Each structure stands twice: as structure tokens, then as C-alpha cells.
Amino acid sequence: MSQSLADLKGLQILVVEQDLDTRMLYTLILESAGAMVQTTASVEEALAVLAHEFPSIMMSGLHFHEADGYALLRQVRALQVVSDRRMPTIAVSGYSQREQQPRALAAGFQRYLPKPVDPFELTQTILQVAQGRSGQLGRETSR
Fold this sequence. Notes:
This protein is an alpha/beta fold. It has five helices and five strands, in the order βαβαβαβαβα. It has a five-stranded parallel beta sheet with strand order 2-1-3-4-5, sandwiched between helices. Helix 4 links the parallel strand 4 and strand 5. The chain is globular and about 40 Å long. The two termini are 26 Å apart.
């Protein structure tokens, strides 16, 4: 029995990821599930988008050339205080997974997904976060 992707129709997702192939893969998965996806390759580009738009969810890598995902999260939270709106955030990383998960969650990301990301798990996680069920603090990794 194969698993199907969660229905993400109506969700606007900002994907912040510096690797082009990974951005394209996430876009394919999320659009296949019905989401509207916008991608950026840097923290600076993401902040430019957020100055004009407020997506349903942001998923972000944690490592960029000019800054890290934690710096982006701090700036996003500051924008949210000004706008009085909340945007759930999901961290995605392939580095030091055991160390990154607790740090990402403590920093304020609602969920953490280690790379490589399973398409079913990605869409289920986004759906749960969108529905406000972020109490499950990311996937435990044993890698």
C-alpha cells in the first residue's frame, strides 16, 4: 500500500534553500500536493519576499553562505511582532542532525526535518503545522 501526499491546497509555502536541485525537488513535491510555492536561495531574498507577502508556512535550510537559518528566524519573528501575525516555520537540514534538531526547536522552529526528506513525511509535517499541531517536536533521528 503506497502512501499518498497530504492535501496542501490553499497553503502558500516559502521555501528558503540555497541548493537549486533541492529547491526544485521541494517545489515539485509541494506543488504535487496542491500548495502554492515560492522559493528563495538566500536569507536576503527571503526577507525581501516577506516584506511584501506573508505565506502560510516557511520552511528553511539552516546553512547559507551569508547567514544561517537561525538569523532568518530571528528576523522573521521580529517582522511578526510588527505585523502581529504568526507564520509557522520548519527547519530542514542535513548537517549534524542529532545536534541540529534540539537547537532548531529551541530557537523557535515548530518542526525539524533531516535531509533527505521523505515526500510523504514532508507533506504530512506541513499539514500538521498548518493545522496547529506542532506539539510533535520534529522527527527523532538515529543517524
